[in-house]
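Apologies for my clumsy wording, but can you show me some protein sequence, whichever is easiest, together with the matching structure tokens, please?
=====
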Amino acid sequence: MKIYLVGGAVRDKLLGFHPKDNDWVVVGATRDEMLELGYKPVQNNQGTGEFPVFLHPETNEEYALARLEKRKGYGHGGFEFDTSPSITLVDDLKRRDLTINAMAFPFEEEKMGELIDPYNGKIDLENRILRHISPAFVEDPLRLIRTARFAACLDFEVASETLELMKQMVIENKVSELSKERIWKEMERALMGTHPENFFDVLKKCNADRILFPYIKIPGSGIKAMQRAAEHKNSAQVRFAALMLDLTQEEIIKFCKQFNVPNQYRDLALLATKNLQQFQRLPELEAPELLNLLTNMGAFQNKDRFNECLHVFECYTQESTYIEKIRHAFEAANSINTKELSSQYIGREITRRMRILRVEAIQQYMNFELEGPRLEMCRVDK
């Protein structure tokens, strides 16, 4: 029985990253032997037959028996496993998607041995290329969207021959076999990549965008805004909302329902889309209108969400002066003492008085902003 560190953990180590998880392959062992050693079997939610993956009794890391896969059914999980002890490490690595994910380190006497690289993954890693290992790549539709995600997270190019296989998968309508939850999971991970625009660019190149994301314009102003959000290291929710700004409210709702997008993503996207047009009119707004905008953006109820929305606007419009102005207006309006009002008025009168005072506070800020440059000009003239 031999144990090897494989897959993404090896790739990340070679790239100089700290792997989030370690994946191990066990060669020359049987299921019964793994159970006797105290390994806990992982529930089978994919494929058919007994799932050949186990959790280490102490570290809880995944250890998989070396295996071959044979397509037997529909979708990403439609595979039958062969886990004969005679299956070699090279056999196991060949079933993987990309060469950069088909490398291994032997684990002997508590230390790593020399790199095992039967499919030249290290060369592709150095050249920043995403390349399939074998024609069996087309058997699993998840590989198409994973490749696009790797392009976003690693900023790698897809090999031309791999792109041709991806186009073939689209023509054969294999993309429709993917679950909406898995599509969203890959998209969410791509959003947090250094170049999330690559995810959509790759999908467009293989024509999968028309099937998966017909509402999203590629390229488009939403893609560019999402790219800026990534450059600013904004959250995944801000990046998603920036991407959605090309869509209508109805399209956002349909998109989020289709892929079971979490509510916090959907709500920020809808909030930004609803208020973008008014935000772009900021220089024209009078104090009452500016207060309406702050209220509609939920600034007084959820300051964090308000700030996230401003990040979205800044990435889309690139108007940093607008952002500064609306922040100062909010600070002015939010300085009103609500407890004091509550002690002096009751019912609707509190709301009415609050609005009057907030408008006055915003107007004072706007007057100061207007007079400031004039005063500076006077000083220069003197």
